[in-house]
From TrEMBL, chains A, B:
The keyword rRNA processing does not apply. Its cofactor is Mg(2+); Mn(2+). Keywords: Glyoxylate bypass, Magnesium, Manganese, Metal-binding, NADP, Oxidoreductase, Tricarboxylic acid cycle. Residues 1-317 form the Isopropylmalate dehydrogenase-like domain. The lineage of its organism: Bacteria, Thermotogati, Deinococcota, Deinococci, Deinococcales. This is Isocitrate dehydrogenase [NADP]. Homodimer. The chain holds residues 1 to 321 of 464 of the full protein. Its EC number is 1.1.1.42. GO terms for biological process: glyoxylate cycle; isocitrate metabolic process; tricarboxylic acid cycle. GO terms for molecular function: isocitrate dehydrogenase (NAD+) activity; isocitrate dehydrogenase (NADP+) activity; magnesium ion binding; NAD binding. It catalyses: D-threo-isocitrate + NADP(+) = 2-oxoglutarate + CO2 + NADPH. It comes from the Bacteria.
Amino acid sequence: MAATLRILLAAGARIDPHEVAVGQQVYLGGVSSGVAPDAWETLRRTGVLLKGPITTPQGGGYKSVNVTLRKALGLYANVRPARAYAPFVATHHPAMDLVIVRENEEDLYAGIEHRQTDEVYQCLKLVTRDGCERVVRYAFEYARAHGRRKVTAMTKDNIMKLTDGLFHRVFDEVAAEYPDLQADHMIVDIGAARLGARPETFDVIVTLNLYGDILSDIASEVSGSVGLGGSANIGASVAMFEAVHGSAPDLAGQDKANPSGLLNAAALMLTHIGQGEVAQRIQNAWLCALEDGFHTGDVAGPHTLQHVGTQAFADAVIERL
Amino acid sequence: MAATLRILLAAGARIDPHEVAVGQQVYLGGVSSGVAPDAWETLRRTGVLLKGPITTPQGGGYKSVNVTLRKALGLYANVRPARAYAPFVATHHPAMDLVIVRENEEDLYAGIEHRQTDEVYQCLKLVTRDGCERVVRYAFEYARAHGRRKVTAMTKDNIMKLTDGLFHRVFDEVAAEYPDLQADHMIVDIGAARLGARPETFDVIVTLNLYGDILSDIASEVSGSVGLGGSANIGASVAMFEAVHGSAPDLAGQDKANPSGLLNAAALMLTHIGQGEVAQRIQNAWLCALEDGFHTGDVAGPHTLQHVGTQAFADAVIERL
Ligand SMILES: CC(C)[C@H](C(=O)O)[C@@H](O)C(=O)O
Ligand SMILES: CC(C)[C@H](C(=O)O)[C@@H](O)C(=O)O
């Protein structure tokens, strides 16, 4: 986070960062949501959260902070770009450049689970017309605003004819309002396989929460850029930006972590708050640093690499702004 | 199916095939399950079904025959081997050779879906201790019987702590009874990504129904051998064998379909009924045919190919028995 903020300020981002506490320390301080009470007020005021990697204490029983924030703040769309940075980062799919828009509040993530008997357990998958419409419309608006051509929905509506069927139906309805964009639908099993094997054939994908969870990990892996991607969680009044990768508590404070995921999340944030030109400057400088062979230790690349620490990597980006 | 049966009989399989009707014609004849009434009696008597590719009429409202058969016959474990046949079939992962054992009756496939209002839809995910235990135990027994070393469970129990948590807990309990086998667990999003990128690191995977559906399509795609894999649906008293790929109605009757998927399913069937040596003979002859460059039109390979029709391909296998 420190490295990322340093780059943002050096690039001339007009931001006034306020720190709030979420995760490990808050849980251990006895707040079961993992979100410090005063954080909510700050979040509602600023409307924007850049979230660093957070840790949940071992041992279970703790609710995911991610899921809590998504639900409490009404962050209905999770936007996850996945692209190749060939030849600077190794991948079988140099042409891939796609965005997954994942529904972010409903589905099996609604958190409605029961133990009926010691032998029988249930989880409720919830899908609403509003939830579908919000995220599908967001996907089409995003596609149009970013010069993308095609939106692909993925569901399993050959089995779940009501719930996934609703998502598919709403998709078709909304798609009809965007005749300038192509729209198609795939069954998610075949879609996931195709995404793994031929990611370059996708543009924007919109899907339900759980499928989006799985698909975005596949996309990020085949791009070769796990650890490099940023994501946006969009709500009506608040938006949250974070790296796609999870936390690596064993790397904390060692000047080893790769700031790229959070930096790319910050670039999405700057675009969101109308500072797209600063975002562009940062991403160009970051790409130049990769091009010049700078990488933190986690990245494998085909050409000469200079493995450097977190702060040296940030310096390399700043020098290229 | 005709090509496959021809090979089976030529190889000396001791079988007495009875034909039963399922799918398109049965649906159109007004049987809503898609399974002809007299089929049930035959199935219960023989205990073994080799199922050809079937078609469901267009237009929705039809229940999947696959799901109906799995549930009505209590086929609790769906076994899907996925391996590379390099260099005869192109793949990035020549060393991959894994088996997915998928729970086959529960989860969101239980078919419990409701429309609460026109705006709110629900689907119930059902997980029982018995269901978990049956399939997990089957996976460990399978691994032991087939000289495999490791069983990996995949769940999303960081979100679904009760349902997926139960599967994970039962997995750990059963694993403790098989100290000769390695056992590990992955969250399914990361597991799916790893499967797509490094399938050679897996051996046996056991998982819930829907995850298994998605994971097996990924595995089959990265093996390069979609269209070549066979699968087994195992129940206490009946077993059903089928190709992993779906039907291709536009190829029917044109001598173009690839019989390999059904042939490999038939090999699993022969092993299941104690004719493993015939199965082995068939698979060797089939591999020799691939090695000699025989392929139906759907397969892309790196070396000289002879694209032949279904029956000529079967002849090539039979010549090599
Ligand atoms: C950590 C977990 C709760 C989360 C999810 O399942 O959504 C993660 O996998 C993600 O994709 O952001
Ligand atoms: C056709 C469909 C019902 C089936 C499933 O979802 O199980 C298929 O995708 C499969 O994997 O066998």
